[in-house]
Amino acid sequence: MLRFLADLSISYGPLRVFDSITFRAALAMLIAFAICLKLIPKFISHMKTSNVTENMIKDSKEISELHSTKADTPTMGGMVMLIGVTISSLLLLDIRNPLVTMGLFIFILYGLLGFIDDFMKYKRLGDNGLTKRQKLFGQIIIAGVVCFGLSAYGGENTTKILLPFTKWDNFQLDLGFLYYPFSILVIIGCSNAVNLTDGLDGLAGGCSVFASAAYAVFAYIAGNSIMAGHFRIPYIAGSGELCILMAALIGGVAGFLWFNAKPAQLFMGDTGSLALGGLIGYTALISKHEIILPIIGGIFVIETGSVLLQVASFKLRGKRLFKCAPYHHHLELSGWNENHIVVRLWMVGAILAVIGLGSLKMH
Fold first, then answer.
1. 174-182: average pLDDT
2. What sign results for the dihedral spanned by CA atoms 256, 260, 265, 267?
3. Among 99, 180, 233, 315, which is most exposed with the fewest C-beta within 10 angstroms?
4. What pLDDT is recorded for position 363?
5. Are 246 and 287 in contact (CB under 8 A)?
6. Beta-carbon neighbour count of residue 226 at 10 Å?
């Protein structure tokens, strides 16, 4: 919205900064951060008054006991994050860009899906909110609409993917029709992976910041024809605007983490985690760096993998592979302090994000 100020630069030259993606990205981050800092204290107070708190009953009795002190912590904090990121993005993005529109679409609707789940848990309208099938069905429908939009907007490179350690001008893998179920899988997989990681104070939010920062860089480079040519990756017209959306996301998450660091005053709930993962997965697709998502989002992969392995081991062998899944709960039951787990996994997440960015020079 504020980008129109760049059109006035003929009359007042300094307004040209609003035509700069990097300037608008920095401003979007600050605005989203400020909105969350301003709104969250009031939100916490309201949720406490309404008694909207997290259900601390877990699959493991030991984990439930470890987290018993968090029973009165308000949840659904992702709502404020959604508001902050959306307002900031609408102010500074070029909303005429369909890539931006679809990004906001998936971010907001995944957030609303998570809100329905959280609200049902609070109102006890189901045994534990939406069923797994209901939630998955909603995710598939939303991601499917976005992928249909990509098919309508994209050009000849839409169904092609960039393989690590290859050069785009030498080799492109064209998945054809299979690209669309693949893209849906990337979005819902990333969304659920972040959701599974959201079990300790600050864990999912902090890891999301590192992944979002990496994909903000990828989106910016892919949207710049000169830089894309230099790094020999596909040029995606308009993808640079997603850098601003990811910057707003980082600002919103940072504002949330201000109150979510241990001891957490607020939890994001599915409202925040589903939206975060959905947008990260979407940006990975648009920037054509979806194949290295398991590296950049390595912590999310470990957490999800631990759950899948735990289920498979119990069904096939009748034994559990971990003391508890996801993996962060296994570390808790192994005697690790919660702060140590979160900070150390943050470190690994930051390193993996840097490794992912390093792949740019390997093309």
1. 91
2. positive
3. 315
4. 57
5. no
6. 9
Flag whether pLDDT at 149 surpasses 90.
no
Q: Which residues of 144-161 are buried (b: 16+ CB within 10 A; e: fewer)?
A: bebbebbeeebeeebbbb
Query: Is the alpha carbon torsion for 192, 266, 212, 241 positive or negative?
Result: positive
CA-CA distances (angstroms) from residue 330 to 9, 302, 335, 341, 360? 57, 12, 9, 10, 34
What does the alpha-carbon distance between residue 56 and residue 267 come to, in Å, rounded to a whole number? 12
- pLDDT over threshold 70, residue 240: yes
In angstroms, rounded to a whole number, what is the distance separating the alpha carbons of residues 276 and 272?
A: 6
Could you give the 3-state DSSP secondary structure of residue 174?
strand
User: Would you state the pLDDT for residue 63?
Assistant: 83
* Stated pTM of the model: 0.93
Confidence label for 10 from pLDDT (cuts 50, 70 and 90): very low
Q: Angle at the Cα of 114 (from 113 to 117), degrees rounded to 5?
A: 95
**How many H-runs (helices) and E-runs (strands) does the chain carry?**
14, 2
Task: Tell me which residue has tokens 């640079």.
Answer: 240
> Which DSSP string do the residues of 247-261 spell out, in sequence order?
HHHHHHHHHHHHHHS
- Whole-angstrom CA distances from 130 to 62, 269, 323 are 25, 13, 27
Q: For all residues of the chain together, what is the average pLDDT?
A: 89
How far is C-alpha 125 from the geometric centre of its chain's CA atoms? Answer: 27
Which two tokens mark 266?
A: 């607020």
Both structure tokens of 40: 């969250």
Indicate the burial class of 162 (C-beta count within 10 angstroms; 0-12, 13-18, 19 or more). buried
State yes or no: cis peptide before 164, omega within 30 of 0: no
β-bridge pairing 173-174 and 160-161: antiparallel
